[in-house]
Amino acid sequence: MSVREPAPSLVSVAAATAVATGALAWALGRRHRPRLAAGAAREREMLAAFAEQSADAIIVSNLDGVINSWNRGAERIYGYRADEMVGRRFSKVLPPDRFDTMNQALADLAAGRQVHIDETSRIRSDGTELLVSVTVSPIRDESGTVVAAAATERDITEKKQREERSARAARLESLGQLAGGVAHDFNNLIAVILNYADFLSGETTPAGSADLARIRDAAGRARDLTSQLLLFAKREPIQVETVDLNELVTCAAELLSRGLGGSVRLVCHTHPEPLPVRANRGRLDQILLNLAVNARDAMPDGGVVLVETDRAPDGEARLTVSDTGTGMTAEVRDRLFEPFFTTKSADRGTGLGLATVYGIVGDAGGTITVDSTLGIGTTFRIVLPAAETPGGGVGVAEVGAGSG
Q1: 26-35: pLDDT as tens digits
Q2: Number of structural domains in the chain
Q3: Contacts of 136 (CB under 8 A, 6+ apart)
């Protein structure tokens, strides 16, 4: 890329203007030096107040990484008071694997280079990790020597989580469209197979009838799988009714207890007030069953499954299923709702259980989130829109028997 130089006349004008401005500033400086000094002091005070009130962490350290200044933004983001950090090395808020990066950054700053990092990790006072974007600039004294460094660090943890949720939702939507298209065409082929099996039923020998029964059984299982895929893709027609989540959990408790086995204990806590939602009763039962089975499989040595209902802060109905199982990694959690993704052996699952749950929740206008820690357990939270009575208020209509 070429850079055009300004015309000689403009350069001359600019130079003359600079000289005149410098001369005027020198003259004014001699006559009004006390007033200028006071103005500079006020400006420094305003800058200090701005830095102190900034929502970002503004931190000043020497070239050894020892902190000289720690503003309120840093206190809020990292959880350490200024008197706890001033005089300490900045490495206190760094994960161990970032120490070498800090030393390199200090070397760059000492050489007069600015450091910018789009995303890196920090550790709060409570031990939790967060993500920040970082810009660090060298501070020079009057002779131009670099004597310190000023860092501005912005907490981007929530922004990153929103981006990841958005990307995950887009990926699942894309998978849903693909799975729905394949499942729809496959369902039509299965219908043809079943119809021909029915046509042949009256024309076969007893041995042939047994073979036809096996064909029907295999086709029926395939149809069940495609039904789950269509559910994930939100293409399966459903009948909707008003269901109280409290009643749903109470009625399902006995069935769930039997399915969990003797080494797993089921605990149910329901909200003291009704939690009506508009959904298909049978599919809500399926959500509970799938999540309970998933929890059981995560606790091979036994444990506790906790099922709770309550009202979310925004008034929506919330169903929570937690376990004390093995937990999962972030990589597994990121792909948890994808169809056919499973960490189980091939003979223990198809990988459609949680994909089905995701589809049912989305079809009901709700959201599902999962928190998991290795060795601690996993928690699924499902939030569904509260149903309204004909009068416009939140209430419960008569709950039918459902299709479950």
Answers
A1: 333 444 445 5
A2: 3
A3: 105, 109, 114, 115, 116, 149, 150, 151, 152
